[in-house]
Amino acid sequence: MSELETRDRNAMPAGEFAFPKERKLPIHDAKHVRNAVARFDQVEDVSDSERDAAWKRIETAARKFDVELHESGWRELGKPH
Fold first, then answer.
1. Which of 6, 24, 30, 73 is the one with CA 20 to 30 A from 55?
2. 47: helix, coil or strand?
3. Distance, CA of 35 to CA of 57 (rounded, Å)
């Protein structure tokens, strides 16, 4: 997956990131939603409540872009399906 150009990433509204304050894990299309789920556990220095909020944003984006999530929450990531 190609990375967003810094210029494009900086121009994105904060609401298009799973972690808007940190501007981490863009979720502006289906490909990035899937990538955000895959890399969710790599985000450091955030609280569980921030992770809960980020997961809700990912769920909303997943519905918007018709991405099927196999986990019902971020705490299930990495567990066998």
1. 6
2. coil
3. 14
Q: pLDDT tens, 29-81? A: 999 999 999 999 999 999 999 999 999 999 999 999 999 999 999 999 876 65
Closest CA to 69 of 40, 43, 26: 40
Closest among 51, 50, 57 to 74, alpha carbons compared: 51
Which residue shows structure tokens 């018709």?
66
DSSP 62: H
First to last CA, the chain: 24
* pTM of this structure: 0.89
